[in-house]
């Protein structure tokens, strides 16, 4: 598949998806969003991929939704553009396979929202985060009002969204927005190493765990507990569970079927 604004590379059971519109700091216009949509479908269907890594080309991860494209939209067009971004990011969030955002630079507005739709976030020490939309006279529009409070708490999310202030990677880590901050040079290696630590495990168990966590955190705890019980039970019908536990008893490395 050919992409104009993305680079999709697959190796060692990972897909590395790079936003590649560096002259506009990878700003999200409709085209790049539609390309992202197609790329996620492709990754979803590809059995050779267990983990997705999302990163950006140049000095930005993503500097937001494309302001030039949004400038003259009317209310209905604005709503539709928002729904497009929301839909694509929800597709990333609900991908069965775990995703890691490797945040190489600015992650502002839609860029912070893209990072938040991934399961894990590793940031370069140079990365900067923020939801500066109110400074443009709009709200966050690709689900930032929903994911930021879930990640950092309501009070911190309101502070960031109401003031539009930009924070550095260390602060983003201290409030729980990113998992880890690393040197600019080692960012991709760190993301790959985290992906490898996931890939060595039973992939069905990883995917079921993701599903149980998300169902619980995005719904009520009783539903989450029930989902966990069902998925925990399902694990015992898999070869991975037999192999994982037999390997433990036999004091050897597990060789999982889904690898
Ligand atoms: N949309 C469109 N173009 C953008 C852009 C954006 N979000 N961000 C940067 N660009 C473009 C600039 O216009 C510039 O293009 P030209 O070279 O053609 O002039 C190019 O990218 C380089 O940007 P700068 O010259 O501004 O780079 P800088 O290093 O001086 O500043 C920056 C970097 C602080 C990130 C600055 O570009 C900036 O403030 N960008 C906008 C950030 C922003 O407000 N993001 C939120 C967008 S709204 C949104 O995302 C809504 C939503 O929730 C869905």
TrEMBL record:
Belongs to the enoyl-CoA hydratase/isomerase family. It holds the Pfam family ECH_1. This is short-chain-enoyl-CoA hydratase. Signal peptide: none annotated. Pathway: Lipid metabolism; butanoate metabolism. It comes from the Bacteria. It catalyses: a short-chain (3S)-3-hydroxyacyl-CoA = a short-chain (2E)-enoyl-CoA + H2O. Homotetramer. It comes from Anaeromicrobium sediminis. One of its GO terms (biological process) is fatty acid beta-oxidation. Keywords: Lyase. The keyword Transport does not apply. InterPro entries: ClpP/crotonase-like_dom_sf, Enoyl-CoA_hyd/isom_CS, Enoyl-CoA_hydra/iso, Enoyl-CoA_hydra_C. Its EC number is 4.2.1.150. The lineage of its organism: Bacteria, Bacillati, Bacillota, Clostridia, Peptostreptococcales. GO terms for molecular function: 3-hydroxyacyl-CoA dehydratase activity. It is an enzyme of class 4 (lyase).
């Amino acid at each position: 598949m050919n992409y104009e604004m993305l680079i999709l590379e697959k190796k060692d059971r990972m897909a590395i998806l790079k936003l590649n519109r560096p002259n506009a700091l990878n700003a999200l216009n409709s085209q790049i969003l539609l390309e992202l949509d197609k790329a996620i479908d492709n990754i979803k269907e590809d059995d050779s991929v267990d983990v997705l890594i999302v990163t950006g080309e140049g000095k930005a991860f993503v500097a937001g939704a494309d302001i030039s494209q949004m400038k003259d939209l009317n209310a209905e067009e604005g709503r539709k553009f928002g729904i497009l971004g929301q839909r694509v990011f929800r597709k990333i969030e609900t991908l069965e396979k775990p995703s890691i955002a490797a945040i190489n630079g600015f992650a502002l507005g839609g860029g912070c929202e893209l990072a938040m739709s991934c399961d894990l976030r590793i940031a370069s020490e140079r990365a900067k985060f923020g939801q500066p939309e109110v400074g443009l006279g709009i709200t966050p529009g690709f689900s930032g009002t929903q994911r930021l409070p879930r990640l950092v708490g309501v009070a911190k999310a309101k502070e960031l969204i109401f003031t539009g202030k930009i924070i550095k990677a260390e602060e983003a880590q201290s409030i729980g927005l990113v998992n880890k901050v690393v040197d600019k040079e080692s960012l991709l290696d760190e993301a790959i190493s985290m992906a490898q630590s996931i890939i060595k495990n039973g992939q069905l168990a990883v995917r079921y765990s993701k599903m149980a966590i998300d169902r619980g955190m995005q719904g009520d705890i009783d539903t989450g507990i029930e989902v966990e019980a069902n998925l925990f039970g399902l694990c015992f019908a898999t070869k991975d569970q037999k192999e994982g536990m037999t390997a433990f008893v036999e004091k050897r490395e597990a060789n999982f079927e889904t690898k």
